[in-house]
Amino acid sequence: MPEVYLTTKQSPSTKANSRSQVKGRPRCPSQKEVNWLGLPHEIWLEILNGYSLSVADLVHMEQTCSFFGGYGLTEEAARLTMKRYRNPRFGQMCARINGSWKKRLHTIDQLSLHYTQLASGSYQNVFSSGNRVFTWGAGRFGQLGNGGQDDCATLSDITDYIPPEMGRVVQVSASSAHTAVLTNKGMTFMFGDSRYDQLGQGNYDASVVPLLVRGNLSNIHCVQVACGSSHTMILSDMGQVYVTGKGDTGQLGLGRSVKYCHGPTLLPVEADIKYITAGIAHNVLITNNGGVFTFGSGTGGQLGLGGTKDVYQPSMVVANFQDCMRDGKHEVITSAAAGVDHTLFLNNKGKVFSCGRNRDGTLGLGHTKITVVPRMVEKLQNNTVDNVVAGVGMSIFITEQGSAYWCGEGVESLEKKIALFPTELHFPDKLKAASIGDDHIIILTRSGKLFSMGANTRGQTGHSTNGLSVNNFTEIALPI
Length: 480
Fold this sequence. Notes:
Elements: E1 5-7, E2 21-25, H1 41-49, H2 55-64, H3 73-82, H4 87-96, H5 101-113, E3 118-120, E4 124-129, E5 132-137, E6 152-157, E7 169-174, E8 178-183, E9 188-192, E10 207-212, E11 222-227, E12 231-236, E13 241-246, E14 260-266, E15 273-278, E16 282-287, E17 292-296, E18 311-316, E19 325-326, E20 329-330, E21 333-338, E22 342-347, E23 352-356, E24 371-376, E25 385-390, E26 394-399, E27 404-409, E28 418-424, E29 431-436, E30 440-445, E31 450-454, E32 470-475
Antiparallel strand pairs: 1-2, 3-4, 4-5, 5-6, 7-8, 8-9, 9-10, 11-12, 12-13, 13-14, 15-16, 16-17, 17-18, 19-20, 21-22, 22-23, 23-24, 25-26, 26-27, 27-28, 29-30, 30-31, 31-32
Helix pairs in contact: 1-3, 2-3, 3-5
């Protein structure tokens, strides 16, 4: 391999040492040396992006390295990232953030903050890694998206079903029998059961392969998707929410009279939404300033509105986060997780709040009483939590250090069958994410490895055991 050089422009005082060279590109004696410092910002950004540097990396380089000082890498990173949006949306997004590069960076961070790599439905799972997407488990309704309807204990690579020009998958979601994936170009694909048009295709036809959601989303850049049992929510880059599917208990948020919705329909809520999550039949919306709306099934108190009635339109969770005011500093809710009939809320200081039915101690409050307003999980106060997961009768909390806690009904060989308070989940590696199915758990470590345990009747643990349960966390083999 030929040796390559990058020659930098020297000041007069150091011209004698101008032969200092750094690896960069082939040096050709017959050509003049290139003044690399004079390259356009876009070229430097492309070079730096080739090393997988994030926006945060670029900001740090501009602030700490004199070489890049004044190059405007921060603003260029924001501008070029924004240009990935489809043209009809770019003007609106720029107007939304008023042209400020700081606001641009904040918006970019918010759009990508909650990208989920791992999700579990009742008996199926979906995982995105790099440029690839894998599914495994139950496939009866086509929810694996691999072209068939058989259960599959080994991971299926469904990447080729997403056209390359549509972008790479950056976020996934799954529920009872349908699955959704979102690309970095704002495209939403869904597959599986569609008896209530939860796939957003305007019909009731199930699909065994990923289908692009069009209709009202044709010119919309989507930034998040959330699957409920028989409905789906989609969030746009403009902070608007679209819903499709079943709404018998208010989970569509379109009013008591709307039982079904055919194709993505705009949810009328007067707020700039930045985060969405869906439980089996209830939803949580979080606004750009930390406000919280809930709607849908409320029979267990999971809406946090003070009662147990179903709510058919988004309603603000008012005065139920008083514990968020600490030491005179305003703390706001930034994300949430919704289970069958309980909800977890996470604030910007890593504190967790919970509400809902609380069977077997799912809320981590030390009792099993229904809790109809969010209460702080006091036992986690000494931890900074950055990820919460709500499943069937169980909750998992992952800290910023990568440790994890669980409460509720245990799965197989967890130390306790029932934990009323958060109990440490002993694991040899640091955790990044987790997902919970009907009776199984999937763990993603920070090193990129997958582990699972629990029931395996449909191959949902990713292990071929002839239906026998996996009683300890066991690594899942990823396809090469």
